[in-house]
């Protein structure tokens, strides 16, 4: 009774993903790394809002990059009159930038708040670099991030690169620890495996690296929420006509971001993220999800991961659980739930061990997550149930019009 | 009479001859044989060396150093400071000559002008509103030179030293600040070089180096030692340093001495003089302010009296006292009269409202003669215990003990009649104002500075 959806939805996905990761790791261990010098001018565009002093660590981590080429940092401060603290923090960095060679900082104060999309497009129009890094003001980076990400662009077929995102504030609360483990398994392992199959689900908005000429050609970012997923899907639509185009995942390009610290903020964030999935799949890209546009590989992946896993499965879990509560005797229900729990703990532990042994770039730090393993299935269960709330909210409430990412009058102009 | 010097057989245009008698000489020694009296010297000729040597000889001469000198052709920039300008048209020239002759009449002729200080005063006196300008010369040890002072000085003494003495004696006053420069403490040269040195061993062999600080083991070393095939690895504990702020940071010690290996935040600065090659600390350098200068009132006074004239000199028997002492005594009188009602005193102020304007407009000698005779009359009115002071050039105060209201009005009448008698003799409209107050009318809340300020305010 319990087995079917696990079997059909999840296990094959994990299996395929891990196989892809193993193949990558094997290839990496046998192939000699080709490190030909390629150091074009790059632009790091940081979308800033209410980060305040925290934006400094983002800029400094970019200044500290071990990259022989020039790095142009453009910080777009949206709604600058409201976010004076962020703007002042950036201005204080100007003398610091002068101490670094080949690093420059441009601050674009945007008086009229226009949202993330407007900031990114403003940065794109000012960018001088060949490679455009779309970054968040609350995300910082390892000092090899630029170098390892840029090396992929030597191949002219690579149009976009992303990398692992790690949770910077993991130690703060139990909620951040849980998200940290989730990021390890989905952002570090999941994206790596999918990217190697060239079916990456999404280039995150906080950390996307693009060939500037390509993004400019496809018109930059588009109005509406979930502009990152929108752009990823738009890139994927070229796959059929230009099958050589690739989106890469670089495990060495590590970013560190802050995640919500309490349950309320976490749920609010997921309400938007999961709701946006529905908005994008059912609305903006209603006609774009086709094998004719994105090729069979991506089409099947999208159906499977995007539609079945992310949209259908949460509903089936809710319906299934309600069904069991109603139909089964209490002890059978509890027994089934314990079985499910044990199954998931086992599954997560296995993945975690693989991750720690093969993928993790900070093994000692990641060991701390072992304490959270027993709680993690519960967290996943709550997340899934919340997904249905989010999707329902989107369907009934047009939740995408209620986003902190852009003002209402901007969101309204997107495709409804 | 115009003397014009020229090497060629040229002549001044005829319209100069209409107004002046003109004599031509080949050079200064030629003229020196019989030293014909002249109103102005005119140098004609394109040879700058010729005009330069002539100018210098004129300015160094014991008699004619202050004469008007004009050049018909451009001279070297340095020599411009010794000239009275390009040769003007005859009417303007005549006006200039007349002005100098007029001023020369009021100049007290005595032996003062043998000294170079006296020479300078005479030169400036004959040229009202003249500004002693500096000339910027990068090859000169001090960077700034005063060509006029160098020419007028007979012993070639240091211009800055001379200016300092003149300014201390209040003969000249600063007109504008040109520059502020630091000079060698040993030779006063402004040709200095500043070198960063190691604070430990004083070696100049220091280098700016980016350093890193590993959080794991605390190792601080130059960044190059951390670089390992494109990544940062701590040379001591071999930790992979990936993220600034969490794995490593940058220490503030950015400099490293190549000879003693000391790392430091900022090097010391040592100054080396390019002229005397001595080394010193920046704090030892001497600050020199470069000004342009002009003749002060006191300087003008010396010019026509031949000595320092001060209004106070007319008050010798009255002990013309300092302002501070006067205020102190006034305070004491005020306190005394409040305590003892039978003690009276009066305060009397004399203000010459248009004195500064008259100084500008008229012949100094006549004006000062008049003020001196006023001082004499005033002296005859004062008694031995009366105190006087001066709070401004044109503001006199008299403290009259044992003078009540009645006594004060009597004093004022006498001084007014004396002033009027003086004005009848004089051609000048001297605007003088009096104010007096006796101790009965002084408010108990007032003190001496307040009282003086209030009365001075009423006079203005």
List keywords for this structure.
heterodimer, A: 416 residues, alpha/beta, Spore Coat Polysaccharide Biosynthesis Protein SpsA, Chain A, 2 domains, three-stranded mixed sheet, 15 helices, 55% helix, 12% strand, B: 460 residues, alpha+beta, Rossmann fold, 3 domains, four-stranded parallel sheet, 24% strand
Any overview of this molecule?
The complex is a heterodimer of chains A (416) and B (460). Chain A has helices at 3-30, 55-63, 84-92, 94-97, 115-126, 145-150, 174-196, 212-217, 227-236, 263-284, 291-327, 330-359, 363-367, 376-397, 408-411; strands spanning 42-48, 71-78, 103-110, 131-136, 139-141, 158-162, 165-167, 207-211, 246-249, 255-257. Chain A is an alpha/beta fold and 416 residues long. Chain A folds into 2 domains: 3-16 and 282-411, no CATH class; 36-262, Spore Coat Polysaccharide Biosynthesis Protein SpsA, Chain A (Alpha-Beta Complex). In chain A, the strands form 2 sheets. Chain A has a 7-stranded mixed sheet, with helices on both faces. A 3-stranded mixed sheet of chain A has the order 5-10-7. Chain A is globular and about 70 Å long. The model of chain A has no long low-confidence stretch (mean pLDDT 89). By secondary structure, chain B is α+β, with helices and mostly antiparallel strands. Chain B has 14 helices and 24 strands. Chain B has helices at 14-19, 28-32, 48-60, 90-106, 116-125, 147-152, 159-168, 223-226, 297-305, 323-339, 355-361, 364-381, 405-425, 448-459; strands at 2-6, 22-25, 40-44, 68-71, 135-136, 144-145, 172-183, 192-197, 206-208, 211-214, 220-222, 227-228, 231-233, 240-241, 248-249, 255-257, 263-264, 268-273, 279-280, 286-295, 345-352, 387-392, 395-401, 432-438. In chain B, the strands form 8 sheets. Chain B has a 4-stranded parallel sheet, with helices on both faces. In chain B, helix 5 (116-125) crosses helix 9 and helix 12 (364-381) runs antiparallel to helix 13 (405-425). At the A-B interface, helix 2 of A face loops of B.
């Amino acid at each position: 009774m319990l087995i079917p959806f696990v079997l059909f939805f999840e296990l094959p996905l994990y299996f395929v993903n891990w196989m892809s990761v193993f193949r990558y790791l094997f290839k990496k261990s046998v192939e000699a790394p080709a490190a030909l010098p390629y150091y074009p001018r790059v632009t790091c565009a940081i979308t800033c809002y209410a980060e305040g002093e925290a934006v400094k660590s983002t800029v400094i981590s970019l200044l500290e990059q071990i990259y022989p080429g020039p790095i142009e940092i453009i910080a777009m401060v949206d709604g600058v009159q409201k976010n004076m603290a962020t703007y002042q923090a950036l201005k204080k960095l100007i003398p610091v930038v002068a101490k670094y060679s080949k690093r420059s900082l441009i601050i674009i104060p945007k008086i009229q708040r226009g949202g993330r999309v407007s900031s990114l497009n403003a940065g794109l129009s000012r960018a001088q670099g060949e490679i455009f890094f779309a970054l968040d003001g609350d995300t910082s980076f390892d000092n090899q991030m630029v170098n390892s990400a840029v090396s992929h662009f030597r191949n002219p077929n690579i149009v976009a690169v992303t990398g692992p995102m790690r949770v910077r504030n993991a130690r703060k609360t139990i909620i951040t620890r849980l998200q940290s483990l989730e990021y390890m398994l989905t952002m570090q392992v999941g994206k790596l495996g999918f990217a190697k199959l060239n079916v990456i689900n999404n280039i995150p908005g906080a950390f996307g690296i693009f060939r500037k000429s390509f993004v400019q050609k496809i018109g930059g970012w588009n109005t509406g929420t979930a502009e990152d997923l929108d752009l990823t899907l738009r890139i994927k639509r070229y796959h059929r006509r230009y099958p050589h185009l690739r989106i890469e995942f670089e495990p060495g390009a590590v970013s560190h971001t802050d995640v919500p610290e309490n349950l309320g903020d976490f749920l609010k964030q997921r309400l938007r993220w999961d709701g946006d999935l529905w908005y994008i799949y059912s609305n903006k890209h209603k006609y774009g999800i086709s094998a004719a546009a994105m090729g069979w590989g991506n089409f099947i992946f999208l159906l499977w991961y995007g539609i079945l896993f992310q949209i259908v499965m949460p509903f089936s879990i809710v319906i299934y659980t309600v069904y069991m509560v109603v139909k089964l005797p209490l002890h059978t229900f509890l027994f089934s739930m314990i079985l499910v729990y044990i199954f998931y703990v086992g599954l997560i532990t296995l993945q975690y061990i693989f991750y720690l042994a093969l993928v993790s770039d900070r093994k000692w730090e990641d060991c701390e997550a072992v304490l959270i393993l027993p709680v993690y299935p519960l967290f996943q269960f709550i997340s899934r149930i919340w997904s249905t709330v989010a999707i329902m909210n989107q369907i009934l409430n047009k939740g995408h019009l209620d986003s902190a990412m852009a003002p209402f009058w901007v969101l309204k102009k997107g495709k409804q | 009479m115009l003397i014009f010097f020229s090497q060629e057989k040229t002549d001044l245009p005829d319209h100069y001859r209409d107004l002046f008698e003109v004599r031509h000489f080949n050079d200064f020694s030629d003229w020196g044989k019989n030293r014909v009296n002249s109103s102005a010297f005119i140098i004609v000729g394109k040879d700058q060396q010729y005009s330069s040597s002539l100018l210098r000889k004129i300015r160094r001469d014991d008699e004619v150093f202050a004469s008007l000198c004009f050049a018909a052709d451009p001279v070297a920039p340095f020599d411009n400071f010794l000239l009275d300008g390009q040769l003007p048209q005859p009417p303007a020239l005549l006006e200039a000559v007349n002005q100098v002759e007029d001023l020369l009449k009021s100049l007290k002729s005595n032996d003062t002008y043998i000294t170079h200080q006296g020479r300078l005063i005479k030169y400036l006196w004959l040229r009202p509103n003249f500004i002693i300008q500096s000339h910027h010369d990068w090859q000169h040890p001090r960077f700034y030179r005063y060509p006029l002072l160098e020419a007028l000085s007979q012993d070639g003494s240091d211009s800055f030293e001379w200016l300092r003495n003149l300014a201390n004696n209040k003969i000249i006053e600063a007109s504008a600040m040109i520059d502020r420069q630091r000079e060698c403490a040993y030779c006063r040269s402004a040709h200095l070089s500043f070198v960063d040195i190691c604070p430990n061993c004083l070696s100049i062999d220091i280098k700016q180096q980016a350093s890193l600080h590993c959080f794991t083991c605390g190792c601080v070393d130059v960044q190059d030692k951390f670089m390992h095939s494109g990544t940062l690895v701590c040379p001591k504990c071999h930790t992979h340093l990936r993220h600034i702020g969490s794995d490593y940071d940058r220490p503030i010690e950015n400099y490293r001495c190549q000879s003693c290996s000391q790392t430091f935040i900022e090097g010391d600065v040592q100054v080396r003089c390019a002229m005397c090659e001595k080394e010193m600390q920046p704090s030892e350098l001497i600050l020199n302010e470069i000004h342009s200068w002009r003749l002060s009132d006191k300087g003008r006074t010396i010019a026509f009296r031949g000595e320092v004239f001060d209004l106070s000199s007319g008050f010798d028997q009255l002990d013309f006292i300092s302002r501070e002492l006067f205020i102190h005594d006034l305070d004491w009188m005020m306190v005394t009269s409040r305590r003892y009602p039978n003690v009276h005193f009066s305060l009397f102020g004399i203000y010459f409202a248009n004195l500064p304007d008259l100084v500008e407009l008229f012949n100094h000698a006549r004006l000062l003669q008049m003020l001196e005779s006023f001082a004499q009359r005033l002296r005859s009115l004062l008694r031995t215990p009366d105190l006087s002071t001066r709070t401004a050039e044109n503001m006199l105060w008299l403290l009259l003990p044992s003078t009540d209201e009645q006594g004060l009005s009597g004093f004022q009448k006498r001084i007014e009649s004396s002033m009027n008698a003086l004005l009848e003799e004089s051609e000048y409209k001297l605007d003088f104002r009096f104010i007096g107050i006796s101790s009965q009318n002084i408010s108990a809340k007032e003190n001496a500075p307040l009282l003086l300020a209030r009365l001075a305010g009423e006079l203005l």
